[in-house]
Amino acid sequence: MLRRPSPADDPPRPAPRRRDRRGRGLRGPLAPTDLPAHRTRRTQFDDLVLDAAERLEQRWGRELDGVEFAVEDVPPSDPAPWERGEVPLGRLFPAQGSLPPRVVVYRRPLETRAPDRSLLAALVHEVVVEQVAHLLDLDPGQIDPGLADD
Predict the structure, then answer these.
(1) If I label 106, which of 4, 21, 33, 71 is the partner at 20 to 30 A Cα–Cα?
(2) Compositional bias (Basic and acidic residues) at which positions (predicted)?
């Protein structure tokens, strides 16, 4: 009697190799996790957004209670939430139903506009202040009086 071969009839396959082709094995991290060099640009950017939010929460804590701050790499392209072809640097999503208001900062557009880390930190702070100003329906100068001086 003839039957079709099944996968169970195949000989067992060896386990996948855990070493590279030169036999050195997997490489470890380039820098230990407790050193600043271990942090990626993404986590460093997240810290800049958190720093900006904490600066504002010191002054506007009650008004910002429950507001979420988030980071996305790029703004959505379809549908485009901006006009005149300008790429947004941040966006405010007002509260809807049980969802709290959310301030989103877009990492890649900000990184391309800032040539170094100190200017990036200032730009991130400015974007967060502008979005919080939209949320509270105030002028950005009222949200952070030092912003006009910078």
Answers:
(1) 33
(2) 1-12
